[in-house]
Amino acid sequence: MSTETATGRYTALYGEHQKLGASFTDFGGWQMPLKYGSELAEHRAVRATAGLFDLSHMGEIWVEGPVAAKFLDYALVGILGAVAAGRAKYSLICNAEGGIIDDLICYRRPATGKGDRYLVVPNAGNAATVAAALAERAVSGPAGAFEVTVTDASAATSLIAVQGPESVRILLKLVPAGQHDTVRRMKYYAADEVEFTFASGAHRLLLARTGYTGEDGFELYVPNEAAAALWEALLEAGRDAGLAAAGLACRDSLRLEAGMPLYGNELSLQVTPFEAGLGPVVSFRKESDFVGRAALEARRAQGPARRLVGLKGLGRRAARSHYPVLKDGAVVGEVTSGAPSPTLGHPVALAYVDAGLAGPGTRLEVDLRGKAEPFEVVELPFYRRTQ
Asked: What architecture is the 61-152 domain classified under in CATH?
């Protein structure tokens, strides 16, 4: 089971990471594997074959009831009621001022006798905050309480991801032949319950074709008590395919290449969706009100003073978080994430810059500890898979 001590929280897979010789780091209060050996080798494995990730620090919050869809349309900025059962949607939960509390994925599951059912997956450090916000919004809607239940299942649930071009082939080794087509034909941002056989038993798990690496891949939701056995079974199934256990270091470089924001870096309560390039996620087509609507409408009309952009390094030195972005020696922005790109062979970064300098092709500099290094604004993502 996941545990919590004075030194941090530990996932149900902590022992598995120790066996593999992982180096650990604190992430959102969790002790998570940073890398197992070479973070560069792990990054390249995900791009070329596959990587296995422990994401059990993420949250899992179930929302269920006759008006679950209507409730989430109020609580989040997107239209969740339009999501078909078996599909997923990326969305945001904002505060009344339009600041981003978290970005998250919502899976709509088949309805039950209790009504519609959704799985909301927030980020690790925000899981308790999002659960509390949803519970509060469930009882304080514009017309009173919504007929829904909000259940935080994070403490009992592990999440394991298989990411990379070999991910389908690896998963099929643990899935009965009758469900192979279910896995093969699953669309991006879709999910289904699939039977996996491991530890001499059959386990029906929620399998989602989602991820945070820019590659094809899947995420598996599993009860804590079965997580270690599934992890070991996946490692064995992927041995001949080049599957590598992968830590947070390469997960960060992978998501950066894919231009995906990280809460706490690119996203925060001080950032609105329009600054972050997430304006299309906000739906003003909803006839009903939603939390933050008035503030977001005003911010949209005003236009953002700064925008999140991708920066391609024209030299060899990489920018890092909080480094100043310059134009003709004047500070015009700040880097939020930066690193050398193992796939592309040059530095890449995400940064907020003055809106007038956000166009692709704009030449800027980044102050790398007193030395101005040249960068160029480019369209995101930096990397896009071809298959």
From this structure: 2-Layer Sandwich (3.30)
